[in-house]
Records
---
Amino acid sequence: MVVDQATDESVDSVFQALADPTRRDILRRCGPAQPSVSRLAAAYPMSFAAVQKHVVVLERAGLVTKERRGREQLVRTDPDAVRGARQAIDDLEATWRGRVDRMTDVLAGSDDPTKKEANEGDT
Amino acid sequence: MSVINVDKDFDALTITLTAEFDAPVERVWQLWEDPRQLERWWGPPSHPATMEQFDLTPGGRVTYFMTGPDGEKYHGWWQVESIDPPNSIEFTDGFADDEGKPNEDRPVSKARVELSDLDGRTRMVLRSVSASREQMEELVAMGAAEGREQAVGQRDALLRD
């Protein structure tokens, strides 16, 4: 697989952006409602500048877009970008949950394939 | 409920899963140490695993394949980084080609498993670090492609109305 440098960096910035709980919260708030940066800032016990900075990190990672409307800047989450980034960790969790369930079955001697229910994550 | 906690760290691309089993540590260890028992839980029911080379010593290799419903085979390998029976094992897990040779282009992940005694029961803490940035890139690209397809689908639906 050819790893394009720009894409590689953008993936890094996606995970860096997602690593912060305030930024994850911003992503949740900026759905279809598209709050302005100032309205968003009012929701957090931190300065406007600090919230603005979080939005910039998210914007650089491609997780939100900003749109100027009159005097305000509206922030909108890109749901596809967020979904893609979370997918890998969620997949890993589903894999291991499935394995732990099966380990329990083996210990109980109840992993006979003829009696088994599908238990691999939620697929 | 066997799984009692899962922590997901999006920064370190790591999950830490804690599970408890109604069996002593030595018994749970056998699930890892005995290839025939490992085969019963490693792959999902639709893709059971078959262990081939099986050397659980430091630096040792495990090779295996999983067989899908149509008979297609997916080869994988472990490289054992450290092992301390019956309490811990650390290994790298990756994909291989049809001959079982590690495929360097595919994602690898690292897992560390620790078993400890809880008055005759067992607590297992598993820490799994998801792969490389390459895998993330692949997944993000896939997610983005999927998103585009959905967007196109939605637009088509709107146009039809």
---
Amino acid sequence: MSAITVENLVVEYGDLRAVDRLDLDIASGEVYALLGENGAGKTSTIEVLEGLRTRTSGSVRVLGHDPADASRDLRDRIGIVLQSTGVERQITVAEAVALYGAVYRRPRPVGEVLELVGLGDRAEARCGTLSGGQRRRLDLALGIVGSPELLFLDEPTTGFDPSARRRAWELVDALRSDGMTVVLTTHYLDEAEHLADRVGVMSAGRLIVEGTPADLQRRSGRTLVSFRCGGGKDELAAATRLAETLGNRVRLVDGRIELLTAEVTAALHALTSWAVEQRVDIDSWSVAQPSLEQVFLDLVGGAEGE
Amino acid sequence: MSDRGTWPGVGALILTQVRHQVRLFLRVPIGLFFTIALPLIMLVVFNAVFGDSTVASPAGEWPTRQFYTGALAAFTAVSATYTNLANTVPVRREEGILKRWRSTPLPVPVLILGQMLGALVVAVLGALLLLIVGVLAYGLEVDAAALPNALLTFIVGVLSFAALGMAISSAVSSADSAPAVANATILPLAFISNIFIPLEDPPRWLDLLGDVFPLKPFAESFQASFHPIDPATTPDASALAVVALWGVLGAVAAVRTFRFDPTPGSVSSGRRRQRGRQRST
């Protein structure tokens, strides 16, 4: 059974098309991660699903409802953790959880919610005095206080230290085992890997890749090789041509040649051999895991090429 | 879905919201000062300065102290509703608090009504406090026969000013400018509405100007219930009609312009712009 079905979703802001003919199908009980750079259309998509943003066109069903109808039943059955929502600073953490819980049909007990998110020891603190990470945990608490069947998490661990992230992941794992459907957006590939049953990568408003984390990892399982090439323009051009035969996403960044390759040893061997033969000086080698941005670029480029 | 149990009752939801709003108000020292303490201080100062003088009225001379208590109680009620909502609603909008509420199953009318009724409760408490101090310290005479009229006038007034406060909160572009907008509208009005200093023989146009806006009709008809010689036991229908008309206009404007999200270009939408910039670097 689908928790969410999206067909041909378009969201436009004036001339800007933030979401471009998006199709999405998320099963009940699934944890789905939406990845993408800032501006890729993740937040716009999620806000349409939450009923907080008006779509330009397309069809959307969330738990059997059109979220644009803003039905009370739907809002009772979903939980929303946004980045852009605040909470009244003058009330305490426990007061906030009780206050927001009281509007749902099935509120969870305050103490239980605070324990789940790890705010048990801050129950009597005023919300205005919380640290950034604690505020995010309060956001999580208010997202789950209504016992939602479907939980939206918009970058839930941004600003968390590693141990807080680990706890947040444990929380999502616990919610998943309760049968909750979770849709999350994130910048962190490891977060998606750890949490998600399926991952969708958005770019320029479209879903360019979708699959299990293992799929995504396989597709982005490349290493970033970069180096600085001595000599003049001719040598640089020759090195670039060579790099293009050894990997893809070759680009020149600040005078360094970058390429993504699945076969690091062979690429390094070919490049050093060439450099020795041509008496070209190659220095400041770097061999590294590509950053998430580079993986995205790789995926975006791959999608455009297909 | 039936397995999720029953909805909380509307009455309980409203009550929770009103309690929440009053609790918020009581925990903000600056709001407490301007709304509750400042009119009390003015009452004390005005009585110390003008206490022995009298004010002429068609029904005869009355002591200034009697004049001030009613006017300042009315002004407290306006501070608690109009000024309070005009200041706090834009902050809630800008901090994403309204957006969070909108994502919950709380019905939107309950959210709006809760803020207005919370302000109304604060207005009642503030005005009562002033009247009690007036009675105990300055010999304010309260005629029981005039109390129903005072109460009616008070309720019409605070509801109208609460609606106007909600309306003006939508016109405020950012939380930073909210206090300026609230004060720039209400303070000049207070001066031409005989709140602080009773204007003796004002020019006709100033008198008329005061009559057109809701503060003077509200304050004067509320005061009239505390007139020492001839307290008004029935409402001043035309004055109340002016106040109510403003209230209805305010309510219509508030409903039509209420926003959950900050307007583009206000402070809190800067985060999105900032993220856009990060992307371009």
